[in-house]
Amino acid sequence: MTTPSKSHGRKTIRPSLVPQDLMSEPTVLAGIWTARVITLFPGAFPGVLGESLTGKAMKDGKWQLETVDLRQFGEGKHRNVDDTPAGGGAGMVLRPDVMGRAIDHAQRHAKGRWPLVYLSPRGPRFNQAMAQRLAQADGVTMICGRFEGLDERVIEHYGIQEISLGDFVMTGGELAAQAVIDATVRLLPGVLGNAESTENESFSDGLLEHPQYTRPAEWMGRAIPDVLMSGHHGEIEKWRQQMSEALTRARRPDLWAAARAPLLDDAVRGVTDAATLTDFLHSKLGDMPDVTALERALATDPALPPNPWTAIAQILWVARG
């Protein structure tokens, strides 16, 4: 066990040319994972992040949250932050000069690995692997979009990473930022208390989590599976693995395909045409209802991509209709 540096967890003193109200200035802890959020609505934070385990961890100094009020960097008497889209169109766009000043302010003390993230429906879908990477960084600065979005030049200039929660549009990025922060903070050391809590849950190994049960032993005529009451830990782990695989295979064939791909690389090399693909699927995926639909799809388009297994999940989703 290593001894933390003397500055770990202590308040830092920073020189500034801007007068500040020391009574209202939040305590800043050095060496603590920090989420810094640029938003038009700083009052939306911490929100649910201040509750339960994430709230307790924040009070215990395991992580910290800072907000940057975008309005304070606005233009003119009314501190305008947006303007009409170039080329015309509906809505308003966040100005690059305003956002640039806010980013420079937010990043002035960022050190080490400190990604700059923009919550946007255009970005890749957020997942557990992204949460793990953010948790391994020193902190993260998140930009909460509003209106029609952010001027593209800001994204290009700062090399901002765009992240999406899914294929839907929200009125702003604040709720998305809280979701990303929550998923990340729970992975920080000491937040959950039990490391196994993050190791045995959905997506930690590429599969969905197995079903969970608790007392009473019987409810509404439904009993807890006998194996979970047997006390045989080996059989319990085997059952949980089987349930995880079955759920993933039935509900998320894309995840199932990705989880199986590393085990089937050699076999995939033998699948080079549509005629053998369905046989391959039957042997590796079993009698999934989608296989019949896939056969119909291949009948109309027998062409295969260079790496068939990579495309299997996509084909199955198309076959589902």
UniProtKB/TrEMBL annotation:
It catalyses: guanosine(37) in tRNA + S-adenosyl-L-methionine = N(1)-methylguanosine(37) in tRNA + S-adenosyl-L-homocysteine + H(+). It is an enzyme of class 2 (transferase). Residues 36-257 form the tRNA methyltransferase TRMD/TRM10-type domain. One of its GO terms (cellular component) is cytosol. Its EC number is 2.1.1.228. Pfam families: tRNA_m1G_MT (PF01746). PANTHER family: TRNA (GUANINE-N(1)-)-METHYLTRANSFERASE (PTHR46417:SF1). It comes from Pseudooceanicola atlanticus. InterPro entries: Alpha/beta_knot_MTases, tRNA_m1G_MeTrfase_C_sf, tRNA_m1G_MeTrfase_TrmD, tRNA_m1G_MTases_N, tRNA_MeTrfase_TRMD/TRM10. This is tRNA (guanine-N(1)-)-methyltransferase. It is found in: Cytoplasm. S-adenosyl-L-methionine binds at G145, L165, G166, D167, F168, V169, M170. GO terms for molecular function: tRNA (guanine(37)-N1)-methyltransferase activity. The keyword S-adenosyl-L-methionine applies.
